[in-house]
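Open question from group meeting: does this chain pack into something compact, or does most of it stay loose? Before anyone orders reagents, we agreed to write out a predicted structure and look at it together. Recording both the input and the output here so the notebook holds the full record.
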Amino acid sequence: MQKIEIKNGILPDSSGFLRYVSYVIQNGFKKKFEEQLFLPHVLIRNSESIFNFKKWDRPDLFQNFIINSENRNQNISFEQSLEFSGTTAFIVIKEDSLLYENYFNGFSRDSLFRVYSISKSFLSALLGVALREGAIQSVHEPVSKYMPVLKSGYFKKLTIANLLRMDSGIEFTQGYAPWKDQIKTYFSIDCRKLISRIRIKNPAGKYFHYNDYHSLILIQIIERAIGQSVIPYFEEKLWQPLGMEYPAYLYCDSIKHGLPKFESGLSIRPIDLAKFGRLFLNSGKWNGQKILSPAWVAESTKKDPNDTRERYCSDFIKPPLAHWFQTGRGYYQYHWWGHCVEQNVSDYFALGIFGQFLYISPRKHCIIIRLGTRKGIRNWWPNVLKRMVDSI
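Structure tokens returned:
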């Protein structure tokens, strides 16, 4: 497998526990780790041919639009409400025209933004590339074909689709204690070894249970299918073809083991995130070049009418997300969240912790990006973003 140059971060490689303790102590001083590249990381080079959206400033577009930010007088402007809500970047694009772009709370267009679990949607797209090129034959292939360490007992029944849809039945404990899986997956210095220790708790396909083990396994499946690290593959097949203006940074578990953290570790600029949204808005095509198959884009993002899975109301799936699922409007497909607007018509979005959103509306040919330091509003952001899309 190709050797990738991995640069060290500010947290130690000596153990996941020491890394966790160091993070907790330093985070008490309110450092912006997303800007300091605190874990080992690699540089994803940007394109030599930059794509630019058409500029069409509409400063009056949302002049009367109200966002109910937390604990603030609502007699404020749209931009004040974004600032008070902890928003750091907000972009609106319709039909390739940049209608609105602004940054808040000390951030700018050049700032590096950690997008957390939005990274998972990039991983899903990368698997779509591997499928289009024939390196992987089908999402219905067994996981054990690529992961011999997961070939016994209930693991035999797992498919790639179970990982994409997060219904494998893999046990995953949530919480911020160092022995919880949520922390282990985040701070482990050897995620491959960590995967070898996972256990099955429930039958495959029965429950939707959002957890990072699914994505960590998918990374390794893609690596074994293509016979190389996913890092140069990502750079060559996705990042550079989309005309990205800036380089990206991708965290790894450690310098020694070098597993890229596509479950939460991508740091990019928002304008380049918008280009990823444009790829999906155009059904996988980019200026005449087929990056993904239209069938994959549809399968990844549209609601499966035969989906009868039960859903955990775990620490992650809680209000407003749990309520949103219960209404029947919300669903989860291949590392994308869906938003049913009406029968057979959906918007969809990539979601990261602290209110990171890439919202895509095919019906309105519109993209909205909201990044922030916290969720910061009383309402559920997808409902707000849908209202904004409908108002344009």
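Observations to bring back to the group:
The first strand starts at residue 41 and ends at 44.
The radius of gyration is 20 Å.
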